[in-house]
Amino acid sequence: MAFNKLALKAWRESQSLSQTEAAKMFQITQAFLSELETGKKEPSFSMLEAISRKTGLSLDEFSSNEKPQSPSGERSSEESVTVQTK
Questions:
Q1: Burial (0-12, 13-18, 19+ Cβ within 10 Å), 66
Q2: What does the alpha-carbon distance between residue 47 and residue 26 come to, in Å, rounded to a whole number?
Q3: Structurally, how many domains does the chain consist of?
Q4: CA dist., res. 78 & res. 15, Å (int)
Q5: Which residues constitute the domain of residue 54?
Q6: Is residue 84 part of a domain?
Q7: Helix (H, G, I), strand (E, B) or coil at 75
C-alpha cells in the first residue's frame, strides 16, 4: 500500500497544528514527520495504525491519493466539488 502523504499533511493543517505539535502527538520527531509529509519516508504499518487512531482517519484514507474528508465528514475548504448538469 502506498502512503498518502497528502492525507497526513491535510489533517495536520485542518487541526492548525505545527509539525512539531503533531510530531509530539504521534511520538515521532518533527524531522521524521516532515519526511512523511514530503514522501521521503513511509511509516511502518504499526505506526500508520497509531496515526490513524490519533487522527480519526481510516487506513484507506492513508492509501488513497486524494485529500481526505475531515473526521466530521465535511470536505476541506480546498476541495472543490464538480457538479454536472444536463
A1: exposed
A2: 9
A3: 1
A4: 14
A5: 5-62
A6: no
A7: coil
Tell me the mean pLDDT per 10 residues along the chain, length 86.
88 96 96 95 93 92 67 42 40
Which triple of cell numbers denotes residue 5?
502523504
Query: What is the Cα–Cα distance from 77 to 30, expressed in whole angstroms?
Result: 26
Give CA separation, 83 vs 8, 22, 51, 78, in Å: 27, 35, 33, 16
Q: What is the pLDDT of residue 68?
A: 54
* pLDDT value of residue 78: 40
CATH of the domain at 20: 1.10.260.40
Region of residue 4 (left: phi > 0; alpha: psi -120 to 50; beta: else): beta
The cell for 74 is 465535511
